[in-house]
Amino acid sequence: MLRKLGDYLTLMYQTFSRYDKSLVFRKRLLHEFYNLGFTSIGIVLILSVFVGAVATILVAYNTDNPLLPEKLIGFSARQMIIQEFSPTIISLILAGKLGSQIASELGTMRVTQQIDALQVMGINPANYLILPKIISCLLFIPVLIVFSIVIGILGGWLACVFTGVITPTNYVVGLRSWFEPYSITFAMIKTVVFAFLITSISSYIGYTVKGGSVEVGKASTQSVVVSSIAIIVFDLILTQMLLT
Amino acid sequence: MIKVEHISKSFGDHLVLDDITATFERGKTNLIIGQSGSGKTVLTKICIGLFEPDSGVVTFDDRPFSNIKEKHKIDIRKDMGVLFQGGALFDSMNVEENVMFPLNMFTDMSYEEKLERVNFCLNRVNLKGVNHLMTSELSGGMMKRVAIARAISNSPKYLFCDEPNSGLDPVTSELIDDLISEITEEYNMTTIINTHDMNSVLKIGQTINFIYKGKLWWQGDSKSVLHSDNKELDEFLFSTELTKRLKTI
Ligand SMILES: Nc1ncnc2c1ncn2[C@@H]1O[C@H](COP(=O)(O)OP(=O)(O)OP(=O)(O)O)[C@@H](O)[C@H]1O
Ligand SMILES: [Mg+2]
Q: Which ipTM did the prediction report?
């Protein structure tokens, strides 16, 4: 375990050292934006609408008390979406999608000796393959999460319109109450940390696969499990650290 | 010229290579032969720097290559072409991009120059009009040839081939052998081929290194290989029904 952590840190060191050609890097980065980022937009948007709607309905249902003002519901739903649902739930979903994608891609390259081929050509494979993945995820996952927050809040509004748990007007009033910009900062810090965890952990697991296609499959599953656990653990740590 | 001197390598307590010393000459096809599991691939991987030897040193034209920092290896690596056993083509790229890859990484040629070089190399391995096929659309023999084209695209001085014709039919493997020995002569490369194909041994074995039980057991060439009085070599060479019968003729 400790040894794995050491290997992981060594790999990250290799990833961030020795730039090859910057032109090539830019091309690889664009490729990863498409490969990892663009293909994730759909799933994030769909999930966010539903998560936002469910969050709003749940809050409304659980605070069904005439003493509590209705705008509290809009407020609570907003806070939940910004602080937890969008950054954490969506990151967990992305850990599933990106984690398996990255681990299986790198794992396949490892077992078919494509990584060896890069290395004997005199290329730093970690830098060539992993760095563009990490950088592109660090850049686009926060953008995705901002989208997700907006769409999630919209989903809450749609829930109000279609189920009538509260009036949409009151929901909007709630949304605009007691707004603290720091909650956005908090969400973004979490997102960036999660993005790094997802990409670096699944890259490490995929990059170090030994064996054949069975092991690649296992690595892909393992990377989803490990990066999800890492996300949850860091969620707790960051929430403690940043909100208290 | 590539020299390996006193190379030993073990995995755990399994000694795979035991004090191997050999010279691979420029402009020649140098063969490493031996039974499956005898350590041919391990020796090749040590030569190309994917494994470090436990002891001993590999030198490329007197430039040391073992147990030095990765960044000092790059210069030699740029002179190196490697044909992996499975081809190891990049499956996210098509044929043209694969062959162009070393040029993209290490040269400042314009796209037209690179394309010209790619087409030249593909022509050289008798492939035409396949530039835009993905690697999954190629047959085994085509993959090997594309991999050769990629290995030679940046004009290497040293060419390593790990079992270039395993899994190919006799006609295609003959073609591949011819191709490798032709380009070796043409570009005056130091070529190391790792094989257990008897036909290759006889045809392109300009120098032959037989590895047995981790030791360099016998050295010679395609002429002397059939008449050696080395028992283990004989057993290895004449192990199949076909070759046994040939010997009795
Ligand atoms: N990474 C490794 N870790 C542990 N043992 C290894 C490793 N690579 C090779 N070996 C061992 O080294 C020995 C030689 O393997 P090698 O692949 O060099 O054989 P080979 O001569 O190339 O055989 P083949 O003709 O089947 O390709 C084998 O016993 C193998 O188990
Ligand atoms: Mg082998």
A: 0.88
